[in-house]
Amino acid sequence: MQLTEKQKGVVRGAGMAMVITLITLIGVLFWQPDFLTPSNTMAGRLSFALKADLFVVLLLVISIGRLARHRFHEPADIDGGGMSVGTARAKSLQAILQNTLEQTVLAITLHILWAVIAPVSWLAAIPVAVGLFVIGRLLFFSGYESGAPARAVGFGLTFYPNVLLLIILALIALRIVG
What is the CATH architecture assignment of 41-173? Predict the structure, then answer.
């Protein structure tokens, strides 16, 4: 199958995001910085993850706010998506919000699972994953309307850390690592 130019752009962006994800997350697992390691109690672990995830939730709030602000200021969209056809901008902001909600649910779920299951010395992966999430969402927001290649790095930096954490958690559960 011959890839289109857009598909090639997505592959480049996604590939870049994958490399960044692997370097940063695997790097922090080997580095194991003490200053990013919580107390080894369940409360300490969960508190650590939830505090980091405040930034994930903040991006969801920003996404909701962007759509709400647009709807308030745009007469054609003020009644909401269920009551109007919606302008192109409203549809774009709604799609960004939907994707951000999906990514937020996945990230917070995996961060909590990671906090509970992973060795305490590996919990530094959570703030690193959150950092990638924040950078990824901001890139996704800014590139969304320019098309798939423009948002691919942002999507990848949001999604791939979660996939990597999930794979490692599965390996821990199977007692292959950790």
Answer: Up-down Bundle (1.20)
